[in-house]
Structure formats: structure tokens, C-alpha cells
């Protein structure tokens, strides 16, 4: 499941670095008042960044987003600056007393200030609580505000569940359309078309007169080479058409919709292209992008509630719950979805978010169950019903599957990252449509002859998980018929010798395993919606089924061996190959994603196999240990590093003995730190400083001589305030004094009106001393989600540390290119 862009949105857009003082290209403010501060790029085509295959326009690559014309009204500022309004001799515009539109807002891919946002929410809550004691209307508003979070979760669950049900139904229909069409209604898929047929047999339950393959429809017969060739060509045609439509829609209307990115306006395009991409037969799944779809729903619905529309920290809590909803509707695993959000996605996960995630996942699962897209009246995607318990001896092959999953995960990550790096660094990345079409054609050409690669990933996994019954017509159940006396008592079926049909199926599975391993490497990361869960599970399920059949035959022919004596007697159902497929699927998925707890819970919810938690746990932990031996990064962390996103991975330990003074800027060879003084600077001087630098914020000091720290001002807020003051306050000119003090100093009679900006200043910026160990500093950044941290010595400002500074330092310590951090 390609959910690493979801992690990118939560951790990068929510906790990544848009920190101050990064020497990046000018943000390019687009309002007319700031045209003079815009440094146009020499070549706008160079200002593009590839997000897991998506070509995004980041012309404004600074830490400050471009200013738009529609700013949201700024709510009351944080309590840290409250009560600091002095009274000047004239009516001055103060951002605290007269809120300025645009202050405190964020654009897409902009790091939020977690401390400020939480402070704003606390102030808002105190104000509502205070007013609720004064009137009944205010009390009702307080109750409505408290209930709004649960109502939002209800809406997210309902909307996501409904969309997931529609995606499942549409994908199943289009996937079957590649093989044929239903004569009684083209809108029926193969299974629904044959439901009402009275001519369907148990042995050939997929064949009915109402459903005809394209070869049979065109040639009039289902037999012969010509009919096979026609069906073959039609399969390739539909695969190319679906993949072409998917990549074209993504490229033309919603470049964020590839992979698993989270821009809210791409919801419709993402939904349509996800159905097309899955139906094209590419080696990808819809489960990861369904997390994206759920988060898009949450982003849109947040605008209905003021509390979430105006506070980015609250909105990101909703996105955490939406990630749980996405997994819930993708796999029918509400509990696993909550754990997935906690373990893999969320940067910040308070207890209230846990409860609301559980509620939203419950609502989404109920909605999906009501739609019943699988037509089996079950919520789970791959329901299994194994009749034989597992034995302690089988832990050895389960651990062997874990080793295979870890090796495959490490190999896949290295190979996929190498291929994606090649795509980024060569002309291959300039032709995304052609790449998708070539891969789709290659996939269809090789997949059609093998029935196990021709079928969809979900159908293949369901087939591999299947426990053979006596009359099962699946090729994987092609055993020699056993005598009645050898059949076990009850529902279980005794182990039987493999027949010619099973051996043929095993050869096809072996070829399918090689094909899936190779094609998934080059498919993941293309510019179509793609998930990684189903392809990874398919690889593991194939390997597990092969090992399971091997163990079954070994036990059948060697019951007198020590390891089989006492529990595998003649006529007993000793080995269940479907269980091995399930364990192998979990092992390979764990090796690729490095998930543990949430993966095990998802797997037993996915299959209903609660009895087999121990084998799943053993294989999952083994795969993680083996994969970690080759590198601690999962596939999502690897792609984050490949794209150079400034994200501090919480799982990565800082093992160096550096101090803050070793990492801070400016260095000895750098220019002096650009600062503002609390008084004495004019508007013109401030604008000149802003125009001559590309920093995203400025420390405020008492004076240039003392360098005593007073606070910190964001570049964005500074520019908005100056521009707004020129429009709304008479007498503000370039010679006007800019004042950050609590009280306005005495002004000459003929002096222009001063501009008070204390209201936009952070009076308590986070600071560390120059001798603070960097491991502590890194923990501060991770746990508080800081944008930057100032470095002082005895109260005097020395420098600044940003998240990108830390990442560059860590890259240097690991002998990697430090300049790869940022948008490379």
C-alpha cells in the first residue's frame, strides 16, 4: 500500500520543517503589494519536485507559502502575547486588537506551529467556557462545540465508507470487463451475472451462458486459437485504455492524486483514477490510496466546522482519525486501522484522537458492511475458515517465511529506490504517460497466459488463502482422490497426495512469484494511484502456499519422521497450505513496511483467523528483524529520504556527541545573523532586510549591540502586517518606526505614525544553550514538532537551528550528501 505520502502529509505537512533561516529560493509572494519582493526564478521548470512520481509545482520553495487573496480571518492570538497592548498617542493598528486577515494561516505543504496552534485552541476553549456561564445560548454553543468533533467523525466515516464501497464495486466490474461482458446487463460483473443462472455447476461455477468472453462474443466460440488471441488482444486493449485514462487524468487535473498524496481537491480525480489503475491489471492495490481518499474526505469536511477550519493542529488530529478510517474500509479492519494510525502515521496522537478514531473506523466499517460490495455479507476481504489447528513444529516453517519476507522486503526497498532514483535522474521521468503505458502493456502481455497473474491481486490472495474442500474445483486443490476411509471426521479433510493438476498449478505459482516480484519493483512510484499492501501480500501468499504444499506432501509421505509422530497420523489433516499463505503474506508485508502490531491485528481482522495470531506474530517479528539487518528504513521512510523531505524519523536514534553550537547557523564563514531590533528600525529598513534575504523568520533583539533575545517574528506575518498597515492606517510610510515593545516610546511631533507589531511576535520562542547536546535537541524537535530553535549563551542570541540543519548534520555524519535535504 502506497501510504508513504500519507505519512508525508501528516509528518511533513504537520511536523516537517518549514523552519526559518533556510537559504532557499524567494517565496514569491503573489499579491500586488509584494511584487517588489519577488525574485523570479530563472527557469520555472527547475522548480518542480517529484512526490512519489507526482510532478508538483513548488515555484515557492521557501519555508513561507505564497500569499493568496482569500485569507481566513485570524482568530484570537495565543495567550503568550495576550495583554501586551500598550496605548500610543495615536490610534495604531495592533494585530491583537484588530486582527489582520492572513495572520496565523498556512498553505499547502507548510509546517504548522504546533505550540501556537494548541495555545490558540486553549484560548478559544477558555473563552467558550467562560461565556457558557453567562447565558443559555452560549451554553448551547459550548455543547455544540464539544459535540462537533464527534459529528465530524461520523461524517468522515459515512463518506469514506460510501466512497470505498463504490470504488470496490466499480473496480470489480472494470476488472471483469477485461475478460468479457454480461449479456443481460453490461453493468454486472462476472460473479453477479452468473448468480441468477440455473446452468452454473459447482465444478465450473464461473461459467454461465449469460457471461461471454470477448473471444466468444466476437468469434462465436470459446474454443480455438483465434478466440484465445482475440481475448488476449482485448485484455491488453482494456489494460492500456484504463491505465492511459488513469495517468492522463492525474497528469491533467490532479498531480497530487498519484501515489498517496493528500490535497483535498483531488478527491474526485483520485477516486476515478484509483478504479481505473486497479482495473488495468497493474501490480498495485487500492488499499493505500483509500487512506488518501479518507483523508481527503476529512480535509473537506473540516471546513464545515470553525474549530477545525481555523486550527491546523486540530485538523491534523482529524487526519489521524481519517487514516484509521482508510484502513478500516480498505481491509474491513477497524481496530487494525486505529493501531495503524497510531503506529505508522500519526506525529501526534492524544487520547481523545484515539477514541474518535475508533468511533470513525466503526462508522466506516458499518457503512461498508451495509453496502456489501463483496457480495458475501462479510466485512472482511479474505475470510478464511481453517479446520485444523497449527502445531508447534510448524513454527519453524513460519519463521522461515518470516526470513523470506525480511529478505524480500530489504531487496524490494533497495531495488525500488534505485529504480525511482533512476526515474528522477534520467529522461525516463519526463515521460510519465509513456512509462505507465509501457509498464501496463508489458504487464498485460506477460500476465494473461498465467491464470494466477491474470486475476486481480485480491482475487489471487483469496485463492491462495483457500482451504480445499472435497469438491473444490480450484487447480490448487488438484489432489488425487482419497478413499472415504481416509477422510477425517468432521469438516476437515485428510492430507492427500498431489495430483497432476496441483503440480501444474505450483509451476504457474512459481512463475507468478517471479513475475510479481519483478513487476512490483517498477510499478510502485509511477504517476497513477497505487498501493503496496496487496502486491506485497500476493508475493508472500504465493511463497507461503508453495511452502505449505511442500510441507503437506512431506508430512503425507513421511509420517514416521520424528517431527510428525504423535500429531500427524494417517487420515489426519496435519498441514493447512492456506495458513502458510496467510503467514507468508503478513511476513512480506512486514518486511516491506516494517509494521508489527498493527499488521498482525489487520491480518487477523482481514481473514477472521483469530486462532493464528501466534504464527502471524512470529513471522512478522522475524521479517522485521531480518529486514532491519539490511537497513532500518521501511519503504515509506526510504521514499521520504529519496525525495529529500525534511522529516525527522522518530524511529531513528541520534547517536553522535554533537552540541548545539556545532549545528547552529550562522557558521564561522557565514554572514552575520539577520535580526530585527525591538525599536529603532523603520518600515523601509525592515522591508529592505526582508527583500535582501530569503529567511522565513527573524529573531527580535533589544539592540544590535546587546543581542539580548526578545522574541521571534515570522516573515509571512511581518509582510502581511506591513502591507495591511499601509492600506488601513494613515501615516504609515517607509520612515515610520517599527516597534516591538509593550509601550510606544515618545515620538517627535513631526515623526510619522509608528507601526506596532508586538502582537505578531512570539514572546517565548524555544531556545537552547550553545552547550546543549544534540540528542536532547533532536528529541525536543521531534516531540514538540518545532519549526526552529534559537541558540543562546547567557541570554545573548548566538544562532538558530532548524530541522533542515539537523537533517543535514545527520546526513553528514552518515556520509550522505547534506544538500539532498530540502526539495531535491
Q: Would you kindly provide a written description of the structure presented here, covering whatever features stand out?
A:
The model is unreliable at 1-97, 259-263 and 484-491 (pLDDT under 50). The strands form five sheets. Strands 5-7-8 form a three-stranded mixed sheet. The longest helix is centred in the first third of the chain and has 42 residues, at 136-177. Strand 11 (767-769), helix 26 (774-784) and strand 12 form a beta-alpha-beta unit. With 824 residues, it is mostly helical. It is elongated. The protein starts with a helix and ends in an 11-residue tail after the last helix. It folds into four domains: 114-148; 152-197 and 205-371, Clc chloride channel (Orthogonal Bundle); 392-479 and 495-643, Clc chloride channel, CATH 1.10.3080.10; 660-814, CBS-domain (Roll), CATH 3.10.580. Helix 1 packs across helix 22, helix 2 (114-132) packs across helix 3 and helix 3 (136-177) runs antiparallel to helix 8. The chain is built from 27 helices and 13 strands. The chain has helices at 4-13, 114-132, 136-177, 190-195, 214-219, 225-253, 267-279, 287-302, 306-309, 312-331, 334-345, 351-371, 395-425, 432-447, 451-454, 457-465, 500-523, 533-557, 577-593, 597-607, 613-630, 635-642, 660-663, 683-692, 715-728, 774-784, 803-813; strands at residues 48-51, 54-57, 180-182, 211-213, 676-677, 681-682, 697-701, 709-714, 737-739, 755-756, 767-769, 788-793, 796-802. Helix content is 50%, strand content 6%. It is found in: Endosome membrane; Membrane.
